[in-house]
Design goal:
Number of domains: 1
Strand content: 15-25%
Strand order of the largest sheet: 1-3-2-4-5
Helix content: 40-55%
CATH superfamily: Glutaredoxin
CATH class: Alpha Beta
Distance between the termini: 42 Å
């Protein structure tokens, strides 16, 4: 189900203002995953847990010194083909929106499912993500 684009713009901006790149097609997704060693991939959503928990938590986590080389997003209900492609790449995990995955060399190494987002606040989500960054991502040059 595609939502009107004007509804999605502010929700997209909740992530792009932190430097998260929109990947709106399967080709965009493949390009981003091929370019970098580690990529944070967010499946964004219109739901309340995305707005009040996931997006703010992701923004806080991306301020951490150790983070993925690249951060990208697809929007469930807006970028349908790109979302389907990401979900295919995450086939070992149940579909989820919102969700957050870390890819290393094009393969998923970490997944935060909606069921892990819903019971937590933004600070707890940020903490879980920074722990995942520490485990899966090389420190960034200062």
């Amino acid at each position: 189900m595609a939502y009107p684009e004007q509804l999605l713009v502010p929700m997209r901006q909740d992530l792009t203002r932190f430097g998260v790149e929109e990947t709106r097609t399967p080709a965009d997704v493949d390009r981003v995953l091929a370019e970098n060693e580690t990529v944070l991939m967010v499946v964004n959503s219109v739901c309340g847990c995305a707005a009040g928990k996931a997006r703010p938590g992701i923004g806080m986590a991306l301020q951490h010194a150790v983070k993925p080389a690249k951060a990208a997003t697809v929007f469930a209900g807006g970028d349908d083909a790109a979302v389907a492609h990401v979900r295919n790449l995450l086939a070992d995990y149940p579909p989820s929106s919102p969700s957050v995955a870390i890819f290393r060399n094009g393969k998923p190494v970490y997944m935060m499912h909606r069921s892990e987002i819903e019971p937590r606040d933004a600070f707890q989500i940020s903490r879980l993500l920074t722990e995942a960054f520490e485990k899966h991502c090389a420190p960034q040059a200062q």
